[in-house]
UniProtKB/TrEMBL annotation:
<dbReference type="InterPro" id="IPR003591">
    <property type="entry name" value="Leu-rich_rpt_typical-subtyp"/>
</dbReference>
<dbReference type="GO" id="GO:0051965">
    <property type="term" value="P:positive regulation of synapse assembly"/>
</dbReference>
<keyword id="KW-0433">Leucine-rich repeat</keyword>
<dbReference type="GO" id="GO:0071805">
    <property type="term" value="P:potassium ion transmembrane transport"/>
</dbReference>
<keyword id="KW-0472">Membrane</keyword>
<keyword id="KW-1003">Cell membrane</keyword>
<dbReference type="Pfam" id="PF13855">
    <property type="entry name" value="LRR_8"/>
</dbReference>
<feature type="domain" description="LRRCT">
    <location>
        <begin position="167"/>
        <end position="220"/>
    </location>
</feature>
<keyword id="KW-1133">Transmembrane helix</keyword>
<dbReference type="InterPro" id="IPR000483">
    <property type="entry name" value="Cys-rich_flank_reg_C"/>
</dbReference>
<keyword id="KW-0407">Ion channel</keyword>
<keyword id="KW-0406">Ion transport</keyword>
<dbReference type="GO" id="GO:0005886">
    <property type="term" value="C:plasma membrane"/>
</dbReference>
<keyword id="KW-0677">Repeat</keyword>
<dbReference type="InterPro" id="IPR001611">
    <property type="entry name" value="Leu-rich_rpt"/>
</dbReference>
<keyword id="KW-0812">Transmembrane</keyword>
<dbReference type="InterPro" id="IPR000372">
    <property type="entry name" value="LRRNT"/>
</dbReference>
Length: 275
């Protein structure tokens, strides 16, 4: 039950002065209702929260720390964290997350530390993280990531610690953004020297740091905006020109065949018998 003398303490949780709400290990199937506006830390680890619906933490706008470890979480709605603009620490580690919707963390502009370790993430889209200007630590270890999507880390200018071990990285063109980022930012990922990737079709392991830019020279580069403009302008023109050429060639072949048939008919026409 709620702690005596502490207002708005959810049932089945223990509350302490200073805004700590401890609901750890209570087999809770959902986020407790009626969270106090004064809550600063909410511990919901080791429960049975299989999903986080929209507005799951309404009323907890002053929350600074949220612990959701080991809940068997499979689904987080894109608006689950929309009321947590002050949140600084979010722990979603050791759950069953396979994907995250675009905009999931966009409201968390004050976030400093985010842990997604120990989930089943095979791909993490840049839109899911969004721009987190104050994020210092990002934990992605022990997932199923074979590469990081281009631009995933672009919105994290303050990143000082990036944890990536325990993922099945695949040596290939898709790994280029991560390898390039690790070379430009060696400090945030001190474990980069120990990260290995598997060569497709082989059982050979290679260090990620062993791949220079030249190793990806065969990979196709995305077109620059100027090049895209040229493609957009010349694409239809090229198509129409090709179509006109095909029509002209078809007409020419038809004309040639007609002339040939006329010539053959003249050769085969029986001559008029003489008088």
């Amino acid at each position: 039950s709620g702690a005596p003398g502490i207002p708005d303490c959810p049932e089945a949780c223990a509350c302490a002065p200073g805004g700590l709400v401890n609901c750890s290990g209570r087999s809770l199937p959902a986020v407790p209702e009626g969270l106090s506006r004064c809550v600063r830390a909410l511990l919901l680890d080791h429960n049975r929260l299989r999903a986080l619906p929209p507005g799951a933490f309404v009323g907890a706008g002053t929350l600074l720390r949220l612990d959701l470890r080991e809940n068997g979480l499979r689904w987080v709605h894109a608006r689950a964290f929309w009321s947590l603009g002050a949140l600084q620490q979010l722990d979603l580690s050791d759950n069953l997350l396979e994907a995250l919707a675009p905009g999931t963390f966009s409201p968390l502009r004050a976030l400093r530390a985010l842990s997604l370790a120990g989930n089943r993430l095979a791909r993490l889209e840049p839109a899911a993280l969004g721009a987190l200007p104050l994020l210092h630590a990002l934990s992605l270890q022990d997932n199923e990531l074979s590469a990081l999507a281009p631009g995933l880390l672009a919105g994290l200018p303050s990143l000082h610690a990036l944890h990536l071990r325990g993922n099945p990285w695949t040596c290939g063109c898709a790994l280029r953004p991560l390898c390039s980022w690790l070379r430009r930012h060696p400090r945030p990922a001190p474990e980069a020297e120990t990260l290995l990737c598997v060569l497709p079709g082989r059982q050979t392991l290679s260090p990620l740091t062993a791949f220079p830019d030249a190793a990806f020279s065969h990979c196709s580069q995305p077109l620059a905006p100027r090049d895209l403009a040229v493609v957009y302008v010349l694409g239809p023109v090229s198509f129409l020109a090709s179509l006109a050429a095909c029509l002209a060639l078809g007409c020419l072949l038809t004309a040639c065949r007609a002339r040939r048939c006329t010539a053959l008919s003249r050769l085969r026409r029986p001559r008029d018998p003489g008088p």
